[in-house]
Fold this protein.
Amino acid sequence: MKVTGFPSNPGPAAWDAILPTRARFGALEAEETSDWLVIGAGFAGLAAARRLSQLAPGDKVTVLDALRVGEGPAGRNTGFMIDLPHDLASSDYGGDVSADKSIIARNRAAIAFAQDMVDVLGVPREAFQKVGKINGAASAKGIQHNAEYAAHLTQLGEPSEGLDARQMQDITGSTYYNGGLFTPGTVMLQPALFVRSVAHKLRSNRVRIYEQSKVVGLERANGLWHARCERGVVKAPKVILAVNGHAQSFGHFKRRLVHVYTYGSMSKAFPTERLTGKENWGLTPADPLGSTVRRISDARGSRVIVRNRFTYEPNMTVNPAKLDRVWRTHDASFKVRFPELDGLEVEHRWGGHLCLSLNNVPAFGEIDEGLFSACCQNGLGTVQGTLGGMMAAELATGHHSDMLAQMQTLDTPKRLPPEPIATFGARVRLMWGERQAGVEL
Ligand SMILES: Cc1cc2nc3c(=O)[nH]c(=O)nc-3n(C[C@H](O)[C@H](O)[C@H](O)COP(=O)(O)OP(=O)(O)OC[C@H]3O[C@@H](n4cnc5c(N)ncnc54)[C@H](O)[C@@H]3O)c2cc1C
């Protein structure tokens, strides 16, 4: 079948752009046969390739990505690898207690797997730091959300620590926040450094990685899948599809996936002493539709990153006319939090594609003979993509584990309502949610 849509993410991948340039992986330019083909080199695809190399060490694995590694959503997110429930559709991220316990177990399995890649493959430590995160609250409603989330965490047996306005200022250097909730289990990624490094370290004479190689057609003939790129073909008996929302472009999960974009702005580097507080921290908003904020620092100075706004984009592209409004929101969110950084320029602005399902489940499993899906990460792809890739590799190799058994009990993504109700409903829901987020945005 012909692939009907390709990745489109506005603006540069800032986390990749601030790294030193690196050697290219090269594009696929020949016909080759492999034991395994993984399509997509994000969190899911790289985790799948790693798990395949553990479970079938003598086999050849080929990974293809349409973009350069680190330039897709895996390298353009905000880098929170969160161990706790983080349901973006809930008012305080939490859900049902027993379901949330399973989610925590799955997220932690993914983090442990990523930690193992860091240790064994030798990924730079600055790409992966288990330092926790704060849910920042700037309003009475935000404080209330944090209190509800803290109570929910207590029910789950999970530690958290409440922070007052003074402690928030000591950490962030901003007087904007009235309170916060610290949880220790989040890993903060330099996402592009992480995916670039994992890909480079995985590459060997058994694992081949090609970038700028978009798959334009995928068909099965004589027991082999044929993945056609513009200048080459890979033939393999088994394929792991790790393209998140683009599963739909390959003809799968049609009208079951919700395509949303979210956006980031990163300041220029500024002298570290220009902002008080700690040099590195990460803050998610108490209201899920508020602003995520990070500060990162190294020898070249500090940068602040703001991420907010979600837009519903069923065609998986963003009309550039929308972006100016998003950037204006970013600038306003930045200014109210850091008035002392007035005049500091934004260096990079970008957006990226997320895929959600109405029932917050992944698009996972064997979807055709020898074709396995590790897609739809519900906005938390650093962990859920990693887990999906690991589990797809286990399923495809016939490896049994409790985690795989748990994944197989999950529902499939629920069907969307018919158009125009789906688009109208999603846009109204986002607009209403962002209005409710108030000063947390
Ligand atoms: C601004 C922003 C902030 C975010 N913040 C966070 C965060 O803090 N924490 C978090 O957990 N998540 C966050 N996310 C979401 C996270 O980035 C995604 O959920 C995650 O990248 C999904 O991982 P994945 O491997 O499933 O898919 P992707 O990272 O999207 O990788 C899929 C790959 O498939 C490739 N592909 C698609 N079609 C084809 C084709 N035809 N041929 C070849 N290759 C193809 C794409 O190029 C892409 O590289 C954020 C996203 C954005 C945009």
Remarks:
- The CA atoms of residues 55 and 219 lie 26 Å apart.
- The chain is about 30% helix and 25% strand.
